[in-house]
Amino acid sequence: MAEVLQKPRSSVEKFRLKKLLEDLEKKQGRGTELISLYIPPGRAISEVMAALREEHGTAANIKSKQTRKNVQDALESIMQRLKYFRKAPETGLVVFCGAIPRSGPGTEKIECYMIIPPEPVPFYLYRCDSKFYVEPLKEMVREKEVYGLIVIDRNEATIGLLKGRRVEVVRTLTSGIPGKHDQGGQSQRRFARIIEQLAHEFYQRVGEHASKIFLEYGENLKGIIIGGPGPTKEEFAKGNYLDYRLKRKIVGIVDIGYSGEEGIYELMEKAEDLISESKYAEERKLMQKFLYLLAKDPDRVAYGIREVLEALNQSAADLVLVSEELRKAYVKGTCRSCGATVEKIVDEAALERGEPIKCPKCGGIVEVKEAKTIVDLLAEKAEQTGAKIEVISTSTVEGNQLLNVFGGVAAILRFKLQLR
Ligand SMILES: [Zn+2]
User: Fold this and answer.
1) If you measure from the C-alpha of residue 237 to the centroid of ligand 1, how many angstroms do you get, rounded to a whole number?
2) Could you report the per-residue pLDDT of 266-289, keeping only the tens digit for each?
3) Which of 113, 126, 151, 382 might form a disulfide with 387, Cβ 3.0–4.6 angstroms?
4) pLDDT per residue over 201-213, tens digit each?
5) Rama region for 296: left / alpha / beta (φ>0; ψ in -120 to 50; rest)
6) What is the pLDDT of residue 272?
7) Domains of the chain, first to last
8) Alpha-carbon distance values, 198 to 23, 35, 160, 195 (Å)
9) What count of other Cβ atoms lies within 10 Å of the Cβ of residue 270?
10) 338 C-alpha to ligand 1 centroid (Å)
11) How far is the CA of 410 from the CAs of 293, 328, 347, 397, in angstroms?
12) Closest alpha carbon to 191 in 205, 180, 176
């Protein structure tokens, strides 16, 4: 079966996909001969095959013999791989395939990548160009954070969404709860009861609408902020009006002066701090756990590539934290002069530039047999030893510390280890 990059779930898998897209973006064909294929979910593969066979036929008209051959070879490679599918997976399938030159003319090799994207592919697209068309996939990978906003008082409720820096007012509902002057001839207690019942029904309605709107965003919904001028917002937040999956996403209840649409904008401004905190709360929590242990029980942590690899080799690491900005690679090879086996950590950029790797014993040039990113190496070792691994951004103070103070990687250990 052809190798397929599965839908990313963990932070490591997301990091890998981001990295792959960066690499694909740099690839360049010699002619118009790199194929990008986006297949939406559920699409019958037989249909796609028919379209590709047609492209294969059309390609016969390409004037340049080399380009014609490369395009047809790429199409054949794709069809060969698609054979294993009956229909596209739940989020669809993205294929990049084409002849990538190694050095001069005639050195091209067909490279094929199949990716199950993190979000559903919205269209069918076939494109043949001198570069791979990665933008739609990049857009899916970009953090799409959405916050749910609810402004509520006794008279009305407005439901909005905060997408990046943009506010969208989705819906306004009114309660129809009568004011005190509407009491008429009823007893005060009976009137109060009616009002309570109406309020309850109103909250239910708001809860149902908000739940429906917010749940559509699934995991992309990072939090919910509820605001309003009176005590209604607390009553609403504490009651069981929002779907249980959403209730735990409430990151703040904020006092604001306005209700309605105006209130949504006021809420967004007041909620900015809450949002930037909640965005990276999980990463900060992990880093703080490490920092706490470092101060209290330094033998229970490792930091820097050397220490963390050592801890992993001894099956001592429980949780590995690696900075997404750590651009190091692991290489393994044989020295051409003395024949020694060499394992080294080098800068990714140096490796990409093709800088020679020197043997630490004799200074000879090492013939590289294996190279991978440090994240891949750590993830592999973590998997073998049952450690968890998380990729940490540099968007927080703690994340910056990880990169700049602790060498980009840290670990919390299962048991004490004398590493330094
Ligand atoms: Zn050597």
Assistant:
1) 67
2) 998 888 878 877 767 788 899 999
3) 382
4) 999 999 999 999 9
5) alpha
6) 80
7) 11-141 (3.30.960.10), 146-279 (3.30.420.60), 282-413 (3.30.1330.30)
8) 58, 60, 23, 5
9) 16
10) 4
11) 11, 15, 18, 15
12) 180
Name the pLDDT band for 336 (thresholds 50, 70, 90).
very high
User: Tokens representing 203?
Assistant: 């909250």
Q: Which of 176, 171, 196 is nearest to 260 (CA)?
A: 171
Token match 């294996």: residue? 370
pLDDT band with cut points at 50, 70 and 90 for residue 352: confident
Ligand 1 centroid–CA 341 distance in Å is 8
Give dist(CA 175, CA 155) in Å, integer.
5
Q: Which residues contact 86 (CB under 8 A, 6 or more apart)?
A: 44, 45
Helix (H, G, I), strand (E, B) or coil at 59: helix
**2 pLDDT more than 60:** no
Measured in angstroms, how far is the CA atom of residue 288 from the centroid of ligand 1?
A: 42
Q: How far is the CA of 306 from the centre of ligand 1 (A)?
A: 21
> Tokens 């699934």, residue?
218
What does the alpha-carbon distance between residue 144 and residue 58 come to, in Å, rounded to a whole number? 39
Rounded to an integer, what distance in angstroms lies between the CA atom of residue 228 and that of residue 206? 14
Q: Whole-angstrom Cα distance, residue 181 to residue 179?
A: 6
Q: Is 70 exceeded by the pLDDT of residue 309?
A: yes
331 alpha carbon – ligand 1 mean position (Å) = 15
Calpha distance 362→335 (Å, rounded): 9
> Which protein residues have a CB closer than 5 Å to ligand 1 (ion)?
335, 337-338, 340, 359, 361-362, 364
The encoded tokens of residue 408 equal 């980009």
